[in-house]
Amino acid sequence: MLSKEKIIKIRKSSWFSNLTTGIILFYAIALGFKTIHEIADPYGTLFYSIDMFVTVYFLVEILIKLYSEKNIKDFFKSGWNVFDFIIVIITLLPLENSSFAAIARLMRIFRVLRLLNSRPELKKIIDMLIGAIPAIVDIVILMFIIFYIYAIVGNFFFEELKSGLWKDFLTAMLTLFRVLTFEDWTDVMYEAMELYSWAWLYFVSFVIIAAFVFFNLFVAVIIDEMQKINSEQTDEQLSREEDKIDLLLEKVTQLQEEIQELKKR
After folding, report:
1. Which domains, ranges and CATH numbers included, belong to the chain?
2. How far apart, in whole angstroms, are the C-alpha atoms of residue 113 and residue 27?
3. Which of 141, 135, 140, 139 lies closest to 224 in space, CA to CA?
4. Is the dihedral of CA 171, 191, 179, 184 positive or negative?
5. Which of 111, 141, 158, 184 is positioned for an S-S bond with 166, CB 3.0–4.6 A?
6. Of 67, 89, 86, 73, residue with least CA distance to 11
7. Rounded CA gap, 85 and 83, in Å?
C-alpha cells in the first residue's frame, strides 16, 4: 500500500505528467484510426480495449490527484481539475447502448483536450488566451463597426454588380469577410472598378484597416497578456526566494545565539 507521501511524489513527478501526455497522444491517434473503417472494423476489439485502458488510467489519475490533496475541496478550486473530473465521470457512465450514445462518443473526443491540462506550457498559453478575452472582445466590437460601415457603403455603391456580392447588407458583410481572408479579393475589387474606377480606394483602405491594423492589435493584446503572466511568475519566484532567504537568516540568527550562549558557558 502506497503512503500519501509517495502518492504526492508520483503526482508531482515529471514522469507521471509525461506518461499522461503520452497516453492522451496515443489515444488521439487511436481515435483518428478508428474513423477509418478499413482499420476499425477488423480491429474493433483492440480499439475497445484501448478505450477501456484509457478510461481506467484517467480514473486512477483523478483518484491520485484527489487523494494527494490536503482537502478535496482544494481540488475543485481549479477549473482545469473540474473539467477533467467531469470528462472522467461522464465517460464512466454506461451510455453506449442508450439514447445518449452520441454524448459518450463526444466525450471520447474531449478526452484529447485533457492534453491542455497535462502540460504546464499549454496551460500557460490557454490561461494567456483566457486573460486576453476582454481586450479581444473590444477589438472584435470595433472590427464589427468597421465591417458595418464598409458593408453599408459597399451596398450603396456596388449593389448593381452582376455577381450579387453586394445585393444586401448581410451579403456585403460576407463579401468583406472574403476580402479580409484574401480569398480572390482582387477579383471582387476589379469587378467593382469596372463600375467605379476609384473603387480600389475602398478595398485597399479596408484591407489596411481590417487586415493589417486589427491583426497587429490582436498580436499586441496577446503579447501584453503573455508579459503579464511572465511578470506574475517572476514575482512568485522572487517571493519564494525571499522566503528562503528569510528562513536562512532566521537559522543564522539562531546559530549565533546558540554560539553566544556556548561562549558564556
Report:
1. 4-118 (1.20.120.350), 133-251 (1.10.287.70)
2. 11
3. 135
4. positive
5. 158
6. 67
7. 5
- Percent over 90 (pLDDT), the chain: 17
3-state secondary structure the chain: CCCHHHHHHHHHCHHHHHHHHHHHHHHHHHHHHHCCHHHHCCCHHHHHHHHHHHHHHHHHHHHHHHHCCCCHHHHCCCHHHHHHHHHHHHHHCCCCCCCCHHHHHHHHHHHHHHHHHHCHHHHHHHHHHHHCHHHHHHHHHHHHHHHHHHHHHHHHHHCCCCCCCCCCHHHHHHHHHHHHCCCCHHHHHHHHHHHCCCHHHHHHHHHHHHHHHHHHHHHHHHHHHHHHHHHHHHHHHHHHHHHHHHHHHHHHHHHHHHHHHHHHC
pLDDT at residue 63, as a whole number = 86
Name, in order, each residue with C-beta under 8 angstroms of 147's C-beta and a sequence gap of 6 or more: 173, 176, 177, 210
Mean of all residue pLDDT scores within the chain: 81
Spacing of C-alpha 96 from chain mean position: 29
User: Whole-prediction pTM value?
Assistant: 0.61
Q: Look up cell 481506467; give the residue.
A: 56
Q: For the chain, how far is it from start to end, CA to CA, in angstroms?
A: 50
Contact of 148 with 155, CB cutoff 8 Å: no
For CA atoms 148, 153, 159, 164, give the dihedral sign: negative
